[in-house]
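One thing: can you check what follows?
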Amino acid sequence: MLILGIESSCDETAASVVKDGRTIVSSVISTQIEEHKKYGGVVPEIASRRHCENILGVVKKALSDADVTLEEIDAIAVTYAPGLIGALLVGVNFAKGLAMASGKPLIPVHHIAGHIATNYLTFPDLEPPYLCLVASGGHSHIIEVLSYTKFRVVGRTRDDAAGECFDKCARAMGFPYPGGVHIDKASQNGDPSEFKLPRPAVAGNEFDFSFSGLKTSVINLIHNSQQKGVELNYNNLASSVQTTISEVLTEKTIKAGKALGYRKIALAGGVSANTGVRATLAQACKDNGFEFYMPEKSLCGDNASMIACQGYYNYLAGITADESLNAVATLSMEDI
């Protein structure tokens, strides 16, 4: 079965053809990073306009690279939530028009479910149930993957997501957008022991995260040093930020895995490309006897292969939509 996936939730316009939910036949991504870099972050209106300009060409190329026609596609999957509403609407409306014109089934896909599904593309033998840490610029979740289409959130951020914390700390250090990758690079030459950063405790749910205190501490540290004329070692500070975030994410995930009785733990989301997060969680899983899965780095960011993959399993479960499908800016995994 061939699924055409379409992704436009933020600043990447992407399309992909995936076979039987596990094999990527083609994947095309048009990124807007360079354009948004001068603003220090994604400008929603610009993102939406670029999606409008790029989506037809991206989908055509995905079909061409796969050497298939639209007639040979079995269904069309599209990200409908969550994300920037204007950006989502471009993908959803394009997919609806394509489905109606071709007579193909339309499959709605939740963006976070798509990130989780990247592990199926990397590990063909992986099957639910398992526990997954999803960390990105907008999300930090610990999720029980009960089946291919059923999820339960057991931990989430109360404020800033891990990726957001990376980016805001990077901006305070003077790194360009997107900042997470620059903190990762700088941390390779740093000593994390120079700075002791806070690890906020969260009342009410031991598996929830909070990164706003860490972000504020780093920003205040930098501002105070500038006012005093003291030069900070940003390699060491970046290493401390990365180590702290990696350890917090890992400790909560391992604790949840033990409490809920899972033996398999997976990682997903844009922050899953971070070398510190990958290494720290991998080692902790090894030390605690968990099987560990994480996607290839090329699949960690937003892409349409993950949407096509999850779309395949949604389709098998009978999850389809009609022309009334709408984009949704915010939607919990448990409300799918």
